[in-house]
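Friendly challenge for the regulars: who can give me the structure tokens for this chain first? No prize, just bragging rights.
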Amino acid sequence: MLERGQSIYDRSGCSADRPSPHLTRCVRSIRTVPDNREEIDVFFTLSFISVGMATHGFQNGGDTTVSLPEVVPFDFPYLTRLSWELGSRVVDDNGVFHSKWEQTGSRWSLSIFRVTEHTVILCVHTPVGRERFYGAAKLDLERALPHLESTSNWHRCE
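First reply, four minutes later:
Bragging rights claimed.
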């Protein structure tokens, strides 16, 4: 459990002083602000470039879980939602195309890009043409792909 004022870093070992070469989310500190809310100082690192960001969550029960849209037949234990600007820039600059999947009978699709040795970006295309970007561990993707391949209403585009 994270105590107020304590700093933690995720399993890739990134820190403000020693950024990771992988896309990571690291929590630097947590503190109480007015209205019994906790303010969590989060920063992301990508290819040794640090982008600062602050997020706010409610103490005791605020749900900050990120998940893929329900139409995608799998989810990841650790997933980061990226802004369109950051996601598209990372994919354009560093992304290596992995695969594209479409849902049968709808206009939902999923594109997967490798961006580092251990990180992938998932781009979910909605029926109205929006793109939602998510960062995930390559290992989590490797575990989810067999389920996607066996799902009858999703097919890989060639």
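The chain has two domains: 1-64, 79-153. The radius of gyration is 17 Å. Your move, everyone else.
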